[in-house]
Specification:
InterPro entries: Metalloenz_LuxS/M16, MPP/UQCRC_Complex, Peptidase_M16_C. By secondary structure, this protein is an alpha+beta fold. It has 14 helices and 13 strands. About 40% of the residues lie in helices and about 20% in strands. The strands form three sheets. Strands 1-2-8-3-5-4 form a six-stranded mixed sheet, with helices on both faces.
């Protein structure tokens, strides 16, 4: 598959993947700004307010009706984070025009709608419509609370918060419940203007385009014009690349939380210092797969299957922060045993105790995962976007080639970078379940 071609104007980056593989065209707009405690909640709320209506389509019903008129265009928004950047996203998808009668200009119309959603949301006076704000504050509270209700997700975020303490990487992507009461239509509108004035804007256009150059010029022109009221001038340079967190010493943080849970959540967070742009990143991907990335991994086989010490046992890698996290669900009374055998798997990885079969299974699993992404346009955009934030041009094909070249020696070498930073345990409120447990 051909790669993305980038057209840049200051902080605006248009990445075009011209392909006839899909019968749908996609437009994905990502706004990235540094994560910060004082604006994380307000910024996370903005994309949901955008869908409440626009200047010409004053409510959600009118907005959705307009999307339906565009041959059932799908319009969605969301909030997330990558490394130390908060990412606000809006995307639209429309059918390929050549397959429809009377659909000329469909992609341009979808681009116009999406641009209006982002840059001209419905307002009243000096801020967002009060009714829209109150509705979305209630819904956002539920979004944040749903994370706490999902104990696996909650434990992961709390462990990450500890691993990244002192750095914006650890801020929650949806923000904080206690901030919601202080948000109003005017304060959110000010945050909206600040976002559009300062964010790096990455736009992904995917599909078959008869004249890619004309489309790119028209789309960039539309965006520059729509964003111009929010910034006096276009910055000449994008923000610096996202970098990984380096290990910070030998002292391990121990965090214990008590909640009414039936199953303890034992997570171990490691800093690696290996960034997404590092030549060692592919080897770290393989090392993570060997450790806990598949049903043939060391954690799954030895902790869950052989020792029967965990209901689940896996590891995941956050490539932009360089944090590897082990996640397990255990009986609280087996804490010491589980912790010991988890650490033993990490030490085995560092010692080079990786069989050819383990290496082959890990690489095959990763290869299959990346090949599947070839059928998922927005996932292709997301991989490219991670590279753009990290300052490296990396496509799926590049990753596949790099993964194939990873050796056992590479895995052993990169495993030395794993520095245990935090042991996090979410357990029930019963006291004295295992020896040495801080309560």
């Amino acid at each position: 598959m051909p790669g993305f071609v980038t057209h840049r104007r200051g902080r605006f980056h248009l990445h075009v993947l011209a392909t006839s593989q899909f019968r749908t065209r996609y437009l994905d707009v990502k706004l990235a700004r540094p994560l910060a405690r004082h604006h994380v909640t307000a910024t996370a709320l903005l994309p949901y307010l955008w869908l409440e209506g626009t200047a010409s389509l004053p409510n959600m019903r009118a907005l959705m009706r307009r999307a339906d008129d565009l041959y059932g265009a799908m319009v969605r928004t969301g909030a997330g984070k990558k490394g130390d950047r908060q990412v606000i996203e809006a995307y639209a998808s429309v059918p390929e025009e050549r397959a429809l009668r009377g659909a000329d200009g469909l992609f341009d119309a979808a681009a116009a709608l999406l641009t209006e959603v982002i840059t001209a949301p419905a307002i009243a006076g000096d801020g967002f419509v009060p009714e829209h704000v109150e509705k979305e504050k209630v819904l956002h509270r539920k979004r944040i609370e749903s994370i706490r209700d999902d104990k696996i997700q909650y434990a992961m975020e709390r462990c990450l918060e500890s691993v990244c303490s002192g750095h914006p990487h650890g801020l929650p992507r949806l923000g904080y419940l206690e901030d919601l009461a202080h948000l109003s239509g005017s304060t959110l509108w000010q945050e909206h203007r600040a976002l559009l004035a300062s964010a790096d804007v990455h736009v992904y256009a995917i599909g078959a385009f008869a004249d890619e150059g004309r489309m790119a010029e028209a789309l960039l022109g539309r965006l520059l014009s729509a964003f111009s009221p929010f910034a006096a001038e276009v910055r000449a340079h994008a923000a610096p690349p996202v970098t990984a967190l380096s290990p910070r010493g030998s002292e391990v943080r121990h965090v214990v939380e008590h909640q009414p849970v039936q199953q303890g959540k034992l997570n171990l967070g490691f800093r690696t210092g290996v960034s997404y742009a590092s030549p060692d990143y592919p080897a770290l991907l393989v090392a993570n797969a060997v450790l806990g990335g598949s049903p043939t991994s060391k954690l799954f086989v030895n902790v869950r299957e052989k020792a029967s010490l965990a209901y689940y046992a896996s590891s995941r890698l956050d490539g932009l922060s360089g944090v590897l996290m082990v996640q397990t669900g255990i009986d609280a009374g087996k804490y010491d045993q589980a912790l010991a055998i988890i650490c033993a798997q990490v030490e085995a990885l560092k010692a080079g105790e990786v069989s050819e079969q383990e290496l082959a299974f890990a690489k095959r699993g990763l290869r299959n995962q990346f090949l599947q992404l070839g059928d998922q346009p927005l996932s292709l955009a997301d991989i490219h976007f991670s590279g753009a934030l990290a300052g490296v041009h990396r496509e799926v094909d590049d990753l596949l080639q790099a993964l194939e070249a990873v050796t056992r020696a590479d895995v052993t070498r990169v495993a030395q970078s794993l520095a245990l930073d935090t042991i996090y345990f979410l357990r029930s409120e019963e006291v004295g379940v295992h020896a040495g447990d801080p309560v």
